[in-house]
Amino acid sequence: MKQLRLYSLILFLLSSIILTAGNKDIHHVAMWGGVGYSGLVNHSDNAKFIGGGGGLIGVGYEYHWQQLMLSVGPEFRIFSSRDNVTFPYTYDVNRIVDGAAQTKHYTFGPEFHENHVIGQIALPVLIGAQFNYVYFLAGVKLGYTVLGSYSQSGTLTTSLTDEMAYDPEWINMPNHGLLSDQDYSSKGKNNYGFDATLSAEVGVNLNPFLSSAWNKANEKAERPWRMRVAVFLDYGLKNLSVSENAPMAQPDENEMTTISLHRSDWATSRLNSLLVGVKFTALLQMNKPKKERPALPKAFFHTYDQQTNTGLAATQLVITYDDPKRRPTRRTTNSKGITYQGLALGHYTVQASHEGYYDTKALDFDHQEEGDTLHIALKPYPPFTYTVLEDSTNNLLASKVSFTPLSGGDVITAATDTIETANTITLPFGKIFVVRVEAANHFAVVDTIKNLSDTKTYHLRAFEKKKPIILHNLFFATNETKILPQSEPGLQDLYTILNENPKIRIRITGHTDNVGNDRDNQILSEGRAQSVRQEMIDRGISPSRIEAEGKGETMPIDTNDTEEGRQNNRRVEFVVL
């Protein structure tokens, strides 16, 4: 049963592949017949397998897709088999007649034959392929036996031993039923049930060998014929079983009776069926296959780095047709930066895009012959270069640098396991990034970059008491203490410092420029410092760790005569206490 399940699964998978394969399919009504040598192989030590003749006839459905073939349909199989049976000993029956002991002997031989006829309805499921003149099919046939009969013939000698008689061994006494070499025969039925048979055939297609006139007329017909002849082999799995474990011969005082070898205790528990011969098949084609479209001439596309001339793998190409009703074709280059597409000769536009490179404009491409190649050079994004230094010593500082797009998206983090004089990173083009630079035991620096080709140096200050540190990227509404949403990176920096250093205390100080009167500026500076303090408290920092004050316009760090100087003076800073 395990073998049967495996074969059935393989057939199911292969047939599923064929039946969903495409539009080059041909459907046929198949009719076949075959004759050959057959038999039931029982492997018994008491019988010599001789075999017989058999045949099959069927009608079904056959499917062709390119070279592959699938054949299914019911068939009727009939096969005969012969065994020469050897009886190992004489059967004796003891009896008492007129007070005298007698023994009746039954002896078979020297010839005893058993003939079988099997009729079966089967469902073949065969898969194969055809190659010009030659084809093959293989698979499983699941069958049910509807006819099973047997007949026996041979010679039987009967004799009698009587110890009280003058002649103790009596034979050839017809009036007593003692005969030498008398004809013996018997017949009956066997029930075989279901059968699973492995089947294979190899043959040739006959159409190429027929006259050209017949072939020409046949191909023009609405439903052409295909004919073939093959050698086939059906070999049954060991699941034909009728053994009843009963004695082959059963003598009594008056007669000898026998049962079928296959039902007796001489039989093996299972039988193998065998049918091998020649098979003729006629196929009536039911449809005309769709004609294949001629292959379009290929156009090749090669993308490469403009600076290094190396091919760019995974470049995305969009090929646009002149016909606006046709959807563009998308292709991706291979590891060498090359891809191809079958295209009708004509004019096209092509765009290329690759991560870390500027997208190309729409490039004109005139496809004139097979093998035309469009070479596309892509320009890489300029790298952003930065250096991180310790503020007091100007020594290189191991740090973590993250880039957050203002428009939203994934945060890009630079590698932190090396310290280099100048670090470079390629960022997505067209975006504005907030840059955050962090280092252990140092205040983080937050910056905004718009030009990705910039080169910047960031100085990180170590935690120093009483030394003011400006909170960059902190924004307020004009003449108000309300903190604007774009201040979030600066607020997050201050919160991170306080959260990661739970033992430090700070004082937040607000400053203004000299525009307006002194009192209003003093109140504004105090309010802004208190707003920052309250924001930290709202985020979970203990109020006891934060002081706030305002200095108004009294402590400028730049001139108030220019707008840039006044902007520098409008600031919020803190010191570690």
Instruction: Fill in the CATH topology of the largest domain.
Output: Porin
Rounded mean pLDDT score: 86
Major sheet description: 13 strands, antiparallel
Low-confidence stretches: 10-23
Q: How large a portion of the residues is in β-strands, by DSSP E?
A: over 45%
Care to describe what's here?
This protein is mostly beta strands. A hairpin with a 6-residue loop joins β27 (433-438) and β28 (445-449). The chain folds into four domains: 2-85 and 107-151 and 188-285, Beta Barrel (Porin), CATH 2.40.160; 298-378, Carboxypeptidase-like, regulatory domain (Immunoglobulin-like, Sandwich); 381-462, Immunoglobulin-like (Sandwich), CATH 2.60.40.1120; 464-577, OmpA-like domain (60s Ribosomal Protein L30, Chain: A). Strands 1, 2, 3, 4, 5, 6, 7, 8, 9, 10, 11, 12 and 15 form a 13-stranded antiparallel beta sheet that branches. The protein has helices at 2-19, 212-220, 488-500, 518-538, 563-569; strands at residues 25-41, 47-49, 52-65, 68-72, 75-85, 91-97, 100-131, 134-162, 169-171, 182-189, 194-205, 225-236, 249-251, 256-258, 272-285, 298-305, 316-321, 329-332, 338-342, 346-353, 363-367, 372-378, 384-390, 400-405, 412-413, 423-425, 433-438, 445-449, 455-460, 469-470, 506-511, 546-550, 571-576. It starts with a helix and ends with a strand. 25% of the residues are buried.
